[in-house]
Amino acid sequence: MSELFARLLILRTPGIGPxxxxxxxxxxxxxxxxxxxxxxxxxxxxxxxxxxxxxxxxNIHYICDDDSVYPANLRMVKNHPPVxxxxxxxxxxxxxxxxxxxxxxxxxxxMRFVADLSREFASRGFAVASGMAIGCxxxxxxxxxxxVGTNQTIAVLAGGVDYIWPAENESLYxxxxxxxxxxxxxxxxFVPIATNFIQRNRWVAGLCDKLILGxxxxxxxxxxxxxxxxxxxxxxxxxxxxxxxxxxxGPNSLIASHAAKxxxxxxxxxxxxxxxxxxxxxEKNLDSENSVLDALGTIPVSESxxxxxxxxxxxxxxxxxxxxxxxxxxxxxxxxxVRI
Length: 340
Known about the structure:
Blueprint: H1 3-11, H2 18-28, H3 31-37, H4 42-57, E1 61-64, H5 72-75, E2 83-88, E3 97-101, H6 108-123, E4 127-130, H7 136-145, E5 153-156, H8 170-179, E6 181-184, H9 194-207, E7 210-213, H10 221-231, E8 235-238, H11 249-256, E9 261-262, H12 267-270, H13 274-287, H14 291-295, H15 303-310, H16 314-326, E10 330-332, E11 337-339
Helix pairs in contact: 1-3, 2-3, 6-7, 7-8, 9-10, 15-16
């Protein structure tokens, strides 16, 4: 049997994960002998062969942890995936990696800030890693893809590398396959369950040199990713948010406890960038009429809080909210306004 087949035969055996896989290799001395010891039946062997055949058809590559192209940071994590599958450009995994994560319910302002950061990192040779969820993850990937070229971003999936989730990000998935890399530790064709997303978050943290946390509730998956990154000794940055918004509790708590550095913009990482500043100014001028809309999300925000966020008077905020309601873009609730 081939060594890759032997590795997958072990890993696809129920009850065997990275820790037991490593223990088997240590016990028997090599992969093939360890695989033989399991005495897998014909059905199990055929299942692994079908997966490998499907991967070949879909141009999906397997990378083992002793391959030179296996992500170096991930290899250093205890009980890392012994084999990952990759769809797209394998070269992306060799770049320095920054992970950027945050809530699925991000505000427009929060997503634009993340996209700007991501674009600047990608323009300087970094690959931006995230989990391809809607909201902040999507902004991170799209920001990186705004840079001309390839190898700018990595999507880490909870299911098989061919399983597109969420469905709303199908077009983003194919853009990443074409110009970055999609990776997973799960079998090709695997449909994820809840626990797989936590494991996905672990590898998003494990890949990077530094992690940047955007808007995130205190008990969110993004905060779990940040905690994994802290455990792995990664450099942590957090983007502060308004304390009245529940999406601020994650990043603000990390800053307050000194677990993360406060991220105020691109200059924190690359110094004073006049080109970037000019670009941000032009974008702000173009979108200034939407500043209130950008500040709204799925969590109700009061007029007074909106006034502080966008730096306008309450009377100006009220006038703009009336217009947004008439346009069907915002809705008033008992505790504030939400974006529709």
